[in-house]
Amino acid sequence: MDYQGLIEEVYHEVQAENLKGKVADYIPEIANVDPNQFGIALVDLKGNVYGVGDHQVPFSIQSISKVHTLTMVFNVFNTKLWSRVNVEPSGDPFNSIAQLEYEKGIPRNPFINAGALVITDALCSKFENPIDQLSEFINELAGETCVKINPDVMNSEKNHGERNTALAYFLKSYKNFNNPIEEVLNVYFSQCAIEMSCVDLAKSFSFLANDGFSIFADRQILSESSARRINALMLTCGFYDEAGEFAYRVGLPGKSGVGGGVAAVMPHKFSIAVWSPELNEKGNSIKSIRALELLTDKLSFSLF
Ligand code: GLU
């Protein structure tokens, strides 16, 4: 398979479509990125890296980090986690608080903010230096020191964190939160502020395409069955309330972030990261989604 030729073709076709969206503007550090950036990196299971466009430019991975924290925590708590977080798509915006009240403090899934806060709380219960250990873990997955936490993004997330703070207090009122709120929020805002390139992000997702074994870390990160479960969660819950549309149009397990990144896997074939900051009205990168749609159309195989 000529992956380099394939992603270049996709890249040029998407660029020619001149798609327009809107850069997330909830904090100035995200609002001020150059909206025209666009990169794709694909990593096959031999570790070959293919890239086009701005694939080496670090960007704010935001909610994509929820997959990394879930992986760390899933390894420790295993299925016990599911008494604290459900595994159902939400159909609501990522930061919705309404569902949490009528479902009595059990978030719908680990990828909406309420669920991710529970996961970060679990991380704080088991890891002494969660921020450092999360960075080290992602570096290990990528096979190099690549993670940077942007302090300006982190502080800005904190200064605009009313809703996440409200979600954390709400969870605490339902006794689904074990650590001091400020401590967990600091970790959560730091994970949102992680910056990495498409290349490193695709490498960090490689184990999910490879039955839980990372060729870059050279070890089994998750059991085969746990890796399959994370993929199932990404397929059903990884794209805000557009997961169904993404499964229909693209058909790959993946996770997006408001920084415009998408990381996805084709099990037993490759992992891929695409980034372009302009988002559609559901908060998913308009060019990244289109690129993945074209890519899966052009492939001679699919998940299904
Ligand atoms: N920093 C954002 C928040 O928690 C993350 C949003 C996202 O990428 O989904 O509100």
From TrEMBL:
Molecular-function GO term, any one: glutaminase activity
Designated name of the protein: Glutaminase
Similarity-based family: Belongs to the glutaminase family.
Keyword Hydrolase: yes
GO biological process, one term: glutamate biosynthetic process
Record flagged with keyword Cell wall biogenesis/degradation: no
Organism, scientific name: Algoriphagus aquimarinus
NCBIfam families: Gln_ase (TIGR03814), PRK00971.1-1 (NF002132), PRK00971.1-2 (NF002133)
Gene3D superfamilies in UniProt: DD-peptidase/beta-lactamase superfamily (3.40.710.10)
Domain of life according to the entry: Bacteria
InterPro entries: Beta-lactam/transpept-like, Glutaminase
Binding site for substrate: 63, 113, 157, 164, 188, 240, 258
UniProt keyword terms in alphabetical order: Acetylation, Hydrolase
SUPFAM superfamilies attached to this UniProt entry: beta-lactamase/transpeptidase-like
Subunit structure, as described in the record: Homotetramer.
Catalytic activity: L-glutamine + H2O = L-glutamate + NH4(+)
EC number in record: 3.5.1.2
